[in-house]
């Protein structure tokens, strides 16, 4: 137990390395990529102290080069979910009783390992396994994951310091207890940082965890687990399993000790799980905490006073970085008629200059989408949009999966502001633009607010301050992360806490104090130093 009120090291955002030609980091990253390509990994599940190999081996390949084999992971079944739950429950008592400064030290050490000796390994794994270019991998698997770990330790210590008032003769205290039971982290393919944050934020607050990543992120998830082990995370605190989502759900959501779900992924999957948890509610010891950050249909709204070049750059980056596979990616834009010719010209120039290909060629801005299922879904949207006479595809629209899952960055201009690609999350490199009459700003704000069920990110571009104020007011509930004269992607831990409401999630802001508070159950303790010995109030007449 702590023997002092410790101050943790003040967190600072991890500097983003440039990987410029000739730089040391570029050379080291290239070497890490070559090293990773040269071996075929055999990736186990991690349950308690065991590395579990089921023998059911599944291939892992780079999305941009699907014939190459990076390695195999061992797929599990329901029996592995049961083992992982048991391992988490077994590890709980020791972990819950470990002084918080030791928990903090483990995660701070993990951050330093990622910033130092593991930086190129985890970036290379993300570049190869998830087809992110060097810059996108650096801001995700290195910097954002490091920031999550360091800032969360800082927020944890703030939470523990947050104590109630006490009146004379009384000492009130709050204990921030771990949840009773085990917790479940279910993570998406698109951010290595999110995959690392969901289980570690729960574990940091004293919980033990079953962690199931997306299959297409296992290659980098394995590196996260190596880092955590090297940092000294005790066996069983985080148990990493590779099973189907429904298999995991069947075992976990019917378990009496299930205490919390930390999810990031699609809206439909989250709503299905919430329903199951609701149906099973009487089986649980406690009401499970449910946190889910889900889909988006993120907008860029432009006022007639905006700068066309700034808008086009925000669209080129906001819509197409990481092939549009960010929950925050700009996927619908509303451009005023007075600026359209300029925005279009600048954007088409940008798109023409994009190079597309594998991640090992550092000249490529665009890489592949994650897998064949995503490729088929995204290209399905493009084909349907092509058939709609209200739409015109002004850029891209072509695709090829012979070597990797490549889809050209595609821009659709739609005369119908409620056409399918203006409303639905596509999760790929597709941007739909609606050109509105520049005098109809206020009506268009209403359209932005009501077009989609999501409310994750959105931007307003304007020079006119009255227009900015009006947009901020009218779009109060349209985005959990709202940007003024900036693209709607690229939130930084500690600077722009991230998450959305409406259909986009519970808005529990990843990498923030409010998120960590979901993983503790408070016990209020009142201690009275000299308890009264007479029940009577002073005003009562004595006999
Ligand atoms: N709001 C955010 O912060 C945020 C961040 C990243 C991604 N996302 C969203 O995530 C989605 C893309 O990620 P994805 O394709 O990995 O999402 P996904 O919903 O397909 O998968 C997420 C996780 O859930 C598992 N899963 C899938 N079906 C399941 C089921 N029926 N039962 C239990 N588990 C199941 C997957 O295996 C994976 O581990 C997009 O919708 C994106 O907007 C949101
Ligand atoms: N936090 C990231 C998005 C995470 C979702 O995929 C951003 O702000 O771009």
TrEMBL record:
<comment type="similarity">
    <text>Belongs to the aldehyde dehydrogenase family.</text>
</comment>
<keyword id="KW-0520">NAD</keyword>
<keyword id="KW-0560">Oxidoreductase</keyword>
<dbReference type="GO" id="GO:0010133">
    <property type="term" value="P:L-proline catabolic process to L-glutamate"/>
</dbReference>
<dbReference type="InterPro" id="IPR050485">
    <property type="entry name" value="Proline_metab_enzyme"/>
</dbReference>
<keyword id="KW-0642">Proline metabolism</keyword>
<dbReference type="InterPro" id="IPR016163">
    <property type="entry name" value="Ald_DH_C"/>
</dbReference>
<dbReference type="GO" id="GO:0003842">
    <property type="term" value="F:L-glutamate gamma-semialdehyde dehydrogenase activity"/>
</dbReference>
<comment type="pathway">
    <text>Amino-acid degradation; L-proline degradation into L-glutamate; L-glutamate from L-proline: step 2/2.</text>
</comment>
<feature type="domain" description="Aldehyde dehydrogenase">
    <location>
        <begin position="61"/>
        <end position="523"/>
    </location>
</feature>
<dbReference type="GO" id="GO:0004657">
    <property type="term" value="F:proline dehydrogenase activity"/>
</dbReference>
<dbReference type="InterPro" id="IPR016162">
    <property type="entry name" value="Ald_DH_N"/>
</dbReference>
<dbReference type="InterPro" id="IPR016161">
    <property type="entry name" value="Ald_DH/histidinol_DH"/>
</dbReference>
<dbReference type="GO" id="GO:0009898">
    <property type="term" value="C:cytoplasmic side of plasma membrane"/>
</dbReference>
<dbReference type="Pfam" id="PF00171">
    <property type="entry name" value="Aldedh"/>
</dbReference>
<dbReference type="InterPro" id="IPR015590">
    <property type="entry name" value="Aldehyde_DH_dom"/>
</dbReference>
<dbReference type="InterPro" id="IPR005931">
    <property type="entry name" value="P5CDH/ALDH4A1"/>
</dbReference>
<dbReference type="InterPro" id="IPR016160">
    <property type="entry name" value="Ald_DH_CS_CYS"/>
</dbReference>
<protein>
    <recommendedName>
        <fullName>L-glutamate gamma-semialdehyde dehydrogenase</fullName>
        <ecNumber>1.2.1.88</ecNumber>
    </recommendedName>
</protein>
